Amino acid sequence: MTKVALRSYALLPRQYDERKVLASTIDPWGRALWLICLDARFPRRWAGRDVPAPVSLPFDAVVVISDGGEVRERTLHEVAVDPAAFDALPGGGFVVSTNGWPNARSGQIFGADGRSRRRFALGTHLTHLVADRRTGFWTGYADEGVYSGDPVSAGGLVRWDGRGNRVRDLWPPEPHHHAAAISTVNVSDSDFGSDSAVHAVYWPGAPLVATGPGAMRRIRTLPVSDPLGLAIRDDRLLLLGGTERGSGSVAAARSGAVHRLRLTDEGAEVVGREDLVFPNGDPVRRYARPVCRGPHVFLRTLRTLRQWWVLTLS
After folding, report:
1. Would you call 154 helix, strand, or coil by DSSP?
2. N or C: which end of the chain has fewer CB within 10 A?
3. Domain 2-312 is in which class?
4. Model's pTM, two decimal places?
């Protein structure tokens, strides 16, 4: 099988303590963001690294922004949740989330001045938080959240505005209406005016849902189920990980398997398969949940939050 290599994308500057990074992402403008708690404790160890947590709540956090080689800082004041994920919002603000209980105020919105604007219920067992450039952000949930009794995460995929208001739930119609979780979400700019192009793969099965202004636009059934990452450009699709249906191959379920597909009217067909490797040729076996934007899949390993890599659908 042929191989495709990741490219180095962003690196946290050495003057910052990597051990105190609570969360990291690639925002809608392609900037690498790291959320740092200067006064952190380390209550547990996971995947080969110490996991930090704030000593107390609320606390002030530093956002390190790497933008094309330029690095700058922003301060978020009075962060009242223990951050598990965050992203930058249109207008200069941020959204921060924690892994909360059902109906808990697990989300927090910050304005461009770094001051808290609102705390709100963001759902249970959130696995995807991806902002767009124009209107707000999207969240996706695992089955533990969908079946938790929390009315927010029961929607599977939810769109929010930049003030933390739930705009709509996106739940696929029959015969895909029993979807239990979101495998992957890709958010990109579109030609839909104020909206974004969003593609999500549900589980079980492999329905790919494309959304437009106000509603779902198209559902296709994919030949690869439960992918971990998705990149899209025109009628071409790249899926990272997942199981190719009917292949009978254990290799098809590896997290480092890359499937290249061509979209058709009703579904998609696999046109290529590759193994994902690092630039030095080492295989990519384990990584944190990717951030997917348009033709790009951004990855980081489980052992470090310092380095971001990218796989691009050319």
Report:
1. helix
2. C
3. mainly beta
4. 0.94
- In the chain (314 residues long), the average pLDDT of successive 10-residue segments reads 95 96 97 98 92 97 95 98 97 94 95 98 96 92 93 92 92 78 89 69 90 72 95 96 74 80 94 97 95 97 96 94
Q: Residues 22, 39: contact at Cβ < 8 Å?
A: no
Helices and strands, counts by H and E, the chain: 1, 29
Rounded Cα distance between 106 and 116, Å, is 13
Q: Can you read off the two tokens belonging to residue 231? A: 């990149």
Going by C-alpha positions, the residue among 240, 262, 242 that lies closest to residue 253 is: 242
* Residue 200, burial from CB neighbour count under 10 angstroms (0-12, 13-18, 19+): buried
Pull the structure tokens for residue 15.
């003057």
Q: Say which DSSP state 288 is in.
A: P
- Please report where in the chains the tokens 């704030």 appear, as a residue: 54
For residue 20, what is the enclosing H or E element? Answer: none
- Six token digits for residue 289: 């949940």
Structure tokens that stand for 75 in this block:
């301060």
* Cross-strand bridge partners of residue 168: 159
Rg for the chain, CA atoms, rounded? 19
Alpha-carbon distance 290 to 314, whole Å? Answer: 18
- The pair of structure tokens assigned to 306 is 């310092």
Q: How far apart are CA 71 and CA 10, in angstroms?
A: 11
